[in-house]
Specification:
mainly alpha; Trp Operon Repressor, Chain A; 6 helices; 86% helix; elongated
Length: 138
């Protein structure tokens, strides 16, 4: 069994990108297994970030027993999960920063509104104009 586990962890460590990891786990884990694993990981991250049990239970929809088990595990292995959680938080912050930069860039091209806002405004104006024309013709 230790050889099997070693091969498994070697495979996981060899992923070149998120797409490759996702494909691998989608092939080897059922939908339910992937959800359960993702929920456990989310609980661990939220515990590291200092969330209360009540909030975790409500947001992730897991039992307090699950949260407690993960909390106990974290007490033994907190450094590793903390490093991973911080890495993911940095990636999310970077992604949000890029999103905000793009949004600001788009706003600048449309006089302070995003393309979506500009399009919605034009659609609303056209509908109002059509309704006005329709009411005048009746």
């Amino acid at each position: 069994m230790s050889l099997f586990l070693d091969d498994f962890w070697t495979a996981v460590a060899s992923f070149e990108n998120k797409r490759e990891a996702k494909k691998f786990f989608n092939q080897f884990l059922t939908h339910t297994e992937r959800r359960m694993f993702a929920k456990r990981f989310q609980v661990a991250m939220m515990l590291v970030l200092g969330y209360e049990y009540k909030e975790i239970k409500s947001r992730v929809r897991v039992t307090e027993g699950t949260i407690a088990r993960i909390s106990n595990w974290l007490k033994e292995e907190e450094e590793e999960i903390t490093n991973i959680a911080q890495r993911i938080i940095r990636l999310k912050e970077k992604k949000m920063s890029k999103y905000e930069e793009t949004r600001q860039s788009v706003k600048g091209k449309t006089g302070g509104r995003t393309i979506l806002e500009e399009s919605a405004s034009e659609i609303v104006s056209l509908i109002r104009q059509k309704n006005k024309e329709k009411s005048l013709s009746e």
